[in-house]
Amino acid sequence: MRLVLVGGGGFRVPQVVEALGAADAAVRVDEVHLHDVSPARLGVMRAVLDQLCATLPHPPRVSAGTDLDAALRGADFVFSAMRIGGTAGRVLDERVALDLGVLGQETVGPGGLSYALRTLPHARHLAERVRAVAPEAWVISFTNPAGMITEAMRAVLGERVVGICDTPIGLVRKAVRALGADGRPVDFDYAGTNHLGWLRSVRVDGVERLPDLLADDAALASVEEARLLGPDWVRAVGALPNEYLYYYSFPREATARLRSAAQTRGQQLDVQQGDFYARAAEDPGRALATWREVHADREATYMAESRASEGGGRRAEDVEGGGYQRVAVDLMAAVATGRPATMVLDVPAGGVLPGLPEDAVVEVPCTVDGDGVHPHAVAPLVGDMLGLVQQVKASEQLLLEASARRSRELAWRAFAAHPLVDSVAVARQLLDGYRERIPEVGRALD
């Protein structure tokens, strides 16, 4: 089996290879091909992986190159993990918004819209080349912002592209652990869009247990998302929110913390990862050790601005559970082997989640097997949950149309429609700022 990783020079590539080469990996891959536009980053990642594979029970063969069509030929699966504009682009996604007093975050709000504008043309191009060169391949996309990117690629590839994110299933695992139900039969209900969803039911051995969890102070305190948003608010909502709902629930507080910080998250990662690639290139013999050091720090400081009351750090249990690479490998294994697996995936809303356009990509539980992806029936979103999801999705679909038509007016409307942008005038300033400071955004609309 041949797996192509687009964005193969990216920092998180070793996590995927480590998951594939583990003794308990759900599927074996013969070759992992790394595709990237940067030969230098590919060289560093090859050094890391050469050392990593020497430690793995079942290491795949690793190859690398910069020719996309050559990479795709013979692919069974394609993982899309591209980051157009790199971490420097993320810095500006955040900073342009913060300078205007608006929340600046990688995937949420105007920063996510900017990220999508510069990424969508490349995502569509990838989908077109897969259709031309490897039409039988499955594309698993964890390119952010995942919902919009998956929606655009589905217009080209249909059901053979699936978006993934590790935060929903990670939330389920934390809830199950808090209930002391590890290893027992569990069903759950989760619904929303990427980085905007709620865990609304957890049934253990057929018995609903979410109310028990919400009523138990100690158990609820062990769930990272409940600590982020506060137990009183979680109980008021009656569901466990995805951690990114912090930005929608506390935008004033989040923006104030981000603006007062010495560095944004993007700036931290830009410095951190720039230092990693430089150090690993200078001393390739320690490439893996250097990567492990930097990766541990990255995980420990994830969403630190939302954890001010906890000193900005994460508990050890918060970073357990496998991450997005586990979701990707489990998905690939279910399709390749036919052994069913349940996970939360980005799929069309049609027939699954009422109140949204049928082609709108949403996140819901799905069963995956050799015949593909089968979304579960979930309870409809209602009230404020539905209203928020509809407003964000309307903004996203305006942006998708703006990108396809290269329309500045539609892009302005997309920014203005987002619930975290409180002024049409500010929406115009945001769009103009991104176009002026990020060349890829300007080219996407010119």
UniProtKB/TrEMBL annotation:
<dbReference type="GO" id="GO:0008706">
    <property type="term" value="F:6-phospho-beta-glucosidase activity"/>
</dbReference>
<keyword id="KW-0378">Hydrolase</keyword>
<dbReference type="InterPro" id="IPR022616">
    <property type="entry name" value="Glyco_hydro_4_C"/>
</dbReference>
<keyword id="KW-0326">Glycosidase</keyword>
<keyword id="KW-0464">Manganese</keyword>
<keyword id="KW-0520">NAD</keyword>
<dbReference type="Pfam" id="PF11975">
    <property type="entry name" value="Glyco_hydro_4C"/>
</dbReference>
<protein>
    <submittedName>
        <fullName>6-phospho-beta-glucosidase</fullName>
        <ecNumber>3.2.1.86</ecNumber>
    </submittedName>
</protein>
<dbReference type="Pfam" id="PF02056">
    <property type="entry name" value="Glyco_hydro_4"/>
</dbReference>
<dbReference type="InterPro" id="IPR015955">
    <property type="entry name" value="Lactate_DH/Glyco_Ohase_4_C"/>
</dbReference>
<feature type="domain" description="Glycosyl hydrolase family 4 C-terminal">
    <location>
        <begin position="190"/>
        <end position="421"/>
    </location>
</feature>
<comment type="similarity">
    <text>Belongs to the glycosyl hydrolase 4 family.</text>
</comment>
<keyword id="KW-0479">Metal-binding</keyword>
<dbReference type="InterPro" id="IPR001088">
    <property type="entry name" value="Glyco_hydro_4"/>
</dbReference>
<dbReference type="InterPro" id="IPR036291">
    <property type="entry name" value="NAD(P)-bd_dom_sf"/>
</dbReference>
